[in-house]
Specification:
about 625 residues, mainly alpha, Sodium/glucose cotransporter, 24 helices
Length: about 625
């Protein structure tokens, strides 16, 4: 399809505006490493929350979620738990506050807070950098696959999908590299406004054009059901090839798959955020309280508008494209439903706005990922081990170079990837399976040491790369227990063969972060020095709030889906549940947050670097 010149003009104006923003904020962002990567801890929590939501509203994920919703109907609500989407509730309830109290710049720098400065801590520090870079490259390959498929359906020139991906990722890299976190957050807030308008517009178009009976004629029995039994029990007769896709996905025994998703998702969420854009937003907040509020904002602003778009595209595609989809046979590509539905149903002018919004979705996620990457090589390798006293501007310029190199590597991996779904499955089941064991133990068990962390991560990363090659026919989620088990073996063997960390390091971490868990010995030592110290007794309240919060989060998703499909009775029930869970969280979570005061822990390392840079200039 060729776009109208009005639509092309809107898209071009949007791209020019984002580049301009990169230049506009570049002077402020280049003051120091802290300004470049964390916005100087000066950005409001609500802007960071909207920015984080925008970064998660990526085009590849949206295309995947449309595929999921077309295929599985209302039960597709549960499939994002494979990421898991409810990790934002863990962050909101307690994990963001724990992480922010560390007062560091990156996940790798956090290692020093937990394990000190010995040889084991250095090894653990380096392995986190390795994981972060592997993760970033995986996400960039994922992003390139989605934007290439999307742009190939619309943009002029008849270029390949991969060529379009290179062009658009190059433009996005430019403004991110120039503006750092300031650029990312500012543009993502604007982008999210565009996305919200675009998403609601698509949902309304679907409601106007598709009556419930039109949809019911083409979807199988059970497609509208939110809940499920042991078996999926969906039999597609209107598009028979979808039955083969369900078998390939491995979700036919849906009850068992759901339990595996919950097991994996709880462990990954308890491990804390992976060292990517999500963690950078938490570390960019002004205080632990604002870190928790930032994570709550993601749940409030993201899911309803996003699922208005996803459900709207699903409904339009099934109502009007079912014969065309059925005719594709084994060449059916449900990941291309998004551009196909837009091309057919959205009028000139509005289509340009929607295209700009979807390009914004891609750019938001891509920008956030690129901004997270150079911090690990520049701050955690070059600054720490090679040149700790360099001028701040040198670190910023090195960050420019690293950003470009990481993007190129990510694009190269995208060239050899077959589909969005294949990357999703590897990231959420393989790569994060290797991350989980070490990063759960580091928060909750005092005896776990740096060598246990290092060898657990080595075993996890290695097995996440090797297990899919050794067992190519094993479903991705079924590789998670294998990878987790191998990683746990590395954790425990290395921990018990080496000495615990110094009491002073563990006591400082325990005082600062204040985790609950198996910290009895360290708590006793802290009490000896400070009899007034209070143990964190919030475990049961936190767990209750996580259960309530997960229901609350799911209501935002289901609300949009019931609205677009016009199931108004279910909509009313969902709205009532949303109100009840919101009231519970108000009294049992929001009212219990720390007082709105700045984090008292001084950022000694960054202040010293900024002072030295000022003196030299």
């Amino acid at each position: 399809m060729q776009l109208h010149w009005i639509d092309i003009g809107i898209i071009v104006l949007y791209l020019i505006a984002t580049i301009f923003v990169g230049f506009w904020v570049s002077k402020r962002a280049s003051q120091s490493m802290k300004h470049y990567f964390l916005g100087g801890n000066q950005l409001p929590w609500y802007m960071l929350g909207v920015s984080n939501a925008s970064g998660m509203f990526d085009i590849s994920g949206t295309m995947w979620l449309v595929y999921v919703t077309v295929t599985y109907g209302m039960k597709g609500v549960w499939l994002p738990w494979v990421w898991p989407v409810f990790n934002q509730i863990f962050l909101m309830v307690y994990m963001s506050m724990w992480l922010r109290r560390s007062n560091v710049m990156t996940g790798a720098e956090w290692i020093q807070t937990r394990f000190g400065k010995g040889a084991g801590a250095t090894a653990a520090h380096i392995i986190v950098v390795v994981f972060a870079l592997v993760s970033v490259i995986g996400f960039l390959a994922y992003a390139s696959k989605g934007i290439g498929k999307f742009a190939g359906e619309f943009l002029p020139g008849h270029l390949s999908d991969d060529t379009y991906a290179w062009i658009l990722m190059g433009i996005t890299t430019f403004y991110v590299v120039k503006g750092g976190m300031f650029s990312v957050v500012f543009t993502e807030v604007v982008q999210f406004c565009i996305l919200t308008v675009a998403s609601i517009a698509i949902g309304i178009i679907a409601m106007v054009k598709v009556a419930p009976d039109m949809l019911n004629k083409v979807v199988p029995a059970g497609w509208h059901d939110l809940f499920f039994g042991w078996n999926l029990d969906l039999n597609w007769t209107s598009i028979p090839e979808i039955n083969n896709r369900i078998a390939q996905d491995g979700y036919s025994l849906f009850g068992i798959f759901f339990m595996m998703m919950c097991f994996k998702g709880i462990l990954i969420s308890a491990a804390g955020p992976a060292p990517n854009y999500d963690m950078q937003r938490v570390l960019s907040t002004k205080s632990p309280r604002e870190a928790a509020l930032m994570s709550s904002t993601v749940n409030v602003v993201l899911f309803f508008p996003r699922y208005m778009m996803i459900t709207g595209l699903t409904v339009l595609a099934l109502a009007f494209y079912t014969p065309d989809l059925a005719a594709m046979g084994d060449k059916l590509d449900l990941e291309k439903i998004l551009p196909l539905a837009l091309a057919k149903f959205v009028p000139v002018g509005i289509l340009g706005l929607l295209m700009a919004g979807l390009l914004a979705a891609f750019m938001s996620n891509f920008a956030a990922t690129v901004n997270a990457a150079p911090a690990y090589l520049v701050n955690d390798i070059y600054k720490r081990y090679i040149n700790p006293n360099a001028p701040q501007k040198r670190y910023v310029w090195l960050s420019y170079i690293v950003s470009f190199l990481v993007v190129v590597v990510g694009l190269l991996f995208g060239l050899i990837t077959q589909s969005i779904n294949s990357i999703v499955q590897w990231i959420v089941s393989g790569l994060w399976g290797g991350y989980t064991a070490s990063n759960v133990l580091k928060w909750y068990w005092w005896r776990f040491n740096s060598w246990g962390y290092f060898w657990g991560m080595v075993a996890g990363i290695g097995s996440s790369l090797m297990v899919p090659l050794l067992f190519p026919h094993l479903h991705a989620i079924n590789t998670f227990p294998i990878i987790l088990g191998l990683s746990l073996v590395g954790c425990f063997i290395a921990t018990f063969l080496t000495q615990p960390e110094a009491d002073e390091v563990l006591m400082d971490f325990y005082r600062r972060v204040r985790p609950w868990g198996f910290w009895g010995r360290i708590h006793a030592l802290v009490i000896q020095e400070d009899p007034g110290f209070q143990r964190n007794k919030d475990f049961y309240r936190d767990m209750f709030n996580i259960v309530v919060g997960t229901i609350w989060q799911t209501c935002f998703i289901v609300l949009a889906m019931f609205l677009v499909t016009r199931h108004f009775r279910n909509l009313a029930i969902t709205l009532a549940v949303l109100v009840i869970t919101s009231v519970i969280l108000k009294f049992n979570w929001y009212d219990k947050l720390p007082a709105p005061t700045p984090d008292p822990v001084p950022d000694v390392q960054n202040k010293a670097g900024e002072t030295a840079a000022t003196a030299r200039s």
